[in-house]
Amino acid sequence: MSLQQEIIARFKVKPEIDVEQERELRVNYLKLYLQRAGATGYLIAISGGLDSAVAAGLCKQATDELSSETGQPYVTLALFQPYAEQSDIAHSYEVADAFQLSLRTETNIEEAVDEISLEVEHSFKAIQKSRHISHATKGNIKARTRMVMQYAIAQELNLLVVGTDHASEAITGFFTKWGDGAVDLEPLQSLNKRQVYQLGALIGVPTSVMEKTPTAGLWDGQTDENELGIKYSDINNYLEGKAIDPVAQEKLEKQYLRSEHKRSPIPGI
């Protein structure tokens, strides 16, 4: 078995999907998981990008159906987490409006992130390593700070935290371990980015969000493809079992092997 075949089997990506079937499968999974967990709903942080929009739409369908079927009040809480002024925050609210997410709140992470960053830089002085933290490190602080806030809210309201990772991110380890990679469940997990687009089109993600350039928003001007040096089209094709440019395949497989620690549980002896 080739490495490509091993990866496809691991992430359970299909070469093509029946989009309506995938929607129904994921909504039913969300309903069942919520009932088994004894929670009252889902918390989804809506970034303004496609992945969180699709996850939010699926969660809202699941909690609406569950409320109707059981007579119990299940909810989906939309959370917005800008760092200072978020230039595309309007897209986050547009998603919430599109899916009629009336239960919503906002936590601005700027002060918390900046305080943590300053303390880290201060600690360097004690070991004669005075320096400013990098964009990447501060980006990871943002991811972890967002998750601290998400879990604080979720715990108080008996909600489950929903992740937005999918196979095209998992293969590259493009998430912060125990930051945005630490959630209660991931309803998009076995889809690639192309398939997430297909699902988004089906459930009614706003066009403005569908057309955005993918970015994790770690710093101004950051985009997924520029940071990875790999196009999503190549990643999607690879996960669907298709042949891609050998240079792109080598880079992708190296990234997969190098980022294995992000996908693995905490190791022990």
Helix content: 40-55%
Secondary structural class: alpha/beta
The quaternary state of the protein chains shown equals single chain
Number of strands: 4
Overall pLDDT score? 93
* Net shape: globular
CATH topology: Rossmann fold
Please state roughly what percent of the residues sit in beta strands, choosing from under 5%, 5-15%, 15-25%, 25-35%, 35-45% or over 45%: 5-15%
Helix-strand topology string: HHEHEHEHHEHHHHHHH
Domain module count = 1
Low-confidence stretches: none
CATH class: Alpha Beta
Q: Enumerate how many helices there are, as a single number.
A: 13
Quick structural gist:
With 269 residues, the chain is an alpha/beta fold. The protein has one domain (3-263): Rossmann fold. Helices cover 55% and strands 6% of the residues.
Word description of this protein:
This protein is of the alpha/beta class and 269 residues long. The protein has a single domain, classed as Rossmann fold (3-Layer(aba) Sandwich). The chain is built from 13 helices and 4 strands. It has helices at 3-11, 19-37, 50-70, 89-98, 110-125, 135-157, 167-170, 193-203, 207-210, 224-228, 232-239, 246-258, 260-263, and strands at 41-45, 75-80, 104-106, 159-161.
